[in-house]
Amino acid sequence: MNESSFLGTGWSFPPVFDNANYQLQLSSGESNINQSIDLLMKTPRGSRSLMPNYGCDLFRYLFCRLDATLQEEIIQSVKTTLLNSEPRISVEDVDISLSEDGSIATLSISYKIKQTNTRHNHVFPFSLLEGTHLPVSQL
Given CB 3.0 to 4.6 Å as the disulfide criterion, which of 15, 98, 102, 111 pairs with 89? Predict the structure, then answer.
């Protein structure tokens, strides 16, 4: 049994078509898991009518001042989302770091793939000031 058979194979995200043979490119293994995590983080919870619990509530944190309480709330939201929607992994740690200007929160997700018992890290950048031109000091 090879690794991709139990880790899964799916469409690459975003979907990419190979012009040479007119086929959709697929991803498998760790790449498939990382793309799944990105998709979960980018999908607002409740936006899929047939899967209302799919996604993460990161978008409700746009334009918020990131203090210690909000950081912990985001960390718990990410952990809960991954626990409920990505059964191939167990989350070991989620950490948040801010860019120098405070506009981007970088989520560092440490996880273990259950089937292979291997540890991996995934970094997801999240823009806190998306769609604005305001300096951080004015928020």
Answer: 111
In this structure, are residues 107 and 94 in contact, taking their beta carbons and an 8 Å threshold?
yes
Q: Considering its fold, how many domains does the chain have in total? A: 1
Inter-axis angle of helices 68-85 and 29-42, nearest 10:
130
> Distance (Å, rounded) from C-alpha 47 to C-alpha 52?
7
CA 11 remoteness from chain centre: 16
> Using CA atoms, how far apart are residues 65 and 52, in angstroms rounded to an integer?
28
Looking at the DSSP bridge assignments, the partners of residue 105 are 98, 126
Global pTM value? 0.79
Within 10 Å of residue 89's Cβ, how many Cβ atoms?
21
* Amino acid occupying residue 14: P
* Average pLDDT, rounded, for the chain: 86
Per-residue pLDDT reduced to its tens digit, 97-135: 988 888 888 999 999 999 999 999 999 998 877 654 445
